[in-house]
Every structure is written in structure tokens, then in C-alpha cells.
Amino acid sequence: MKLCQGVVKFVPCGIENNYKITPQQLEAAITPKTKLFMFSSPATPPVPSTPTTN
């Protein structure tokens, strides 16, 4: 983003909304200068470690 002189704006989401943003939060974050918005979420579930056997 810095390369394109963009500004990163984070929209917090917490346990009070079940870790989801509300339409009001999204609307408040978008401005007339907004060109892109991106949702990023850890989509990979944790992998349990398996014991190694020798």
C-alpha cells in the first residue's frame, strides 16, 4: 500500500460482535477516496501436532 501511497485503515472486530464487523463499521471506514477494501482472515485451521515415533 505504501508503494501506491495508499492508506491502510483497520476496522477492529472483537468478541462483542462474534469477531465480525458490522455494516455500520464498514460504511464508516469507506470514504470517497476508497479504491479497495480487503478482508483478511486466518483461513487455515490450527494443525495439531502429532507425536513422532522412532
Give the % helix.
10-25%
Describe the main β-sheet briefly.
Answer: none
Number of helices, where a helix is a run of at least 4 consecutive DSSP H or I residues: 1
The proportion of strand residues reads under 5%
Could you say which structural class the secondary elements and strand pairing correspond to? little secondary structure
The coarse overall form would be: flat
Task: Please identify the oligomeric state.
Answer: single chain
**First-last Cα distance:** 48 Å
Radius of gyration: 18 Å
Order of helices and strands: H
What's the count of strands? Answer: 0
Mean pLDDT: 78
The low-confidence parts are none
Descriptive account of the structure:
There is one protein chain. The protein has 54 residues and is low in regular secondary structure. Helix content is 13%, strand content 0%. The longest helix is centred in the middle third of the chain and has 7 residues, at 23-29. It is flat. The model has no long low-confidence stretch (mean pLDDT 78).
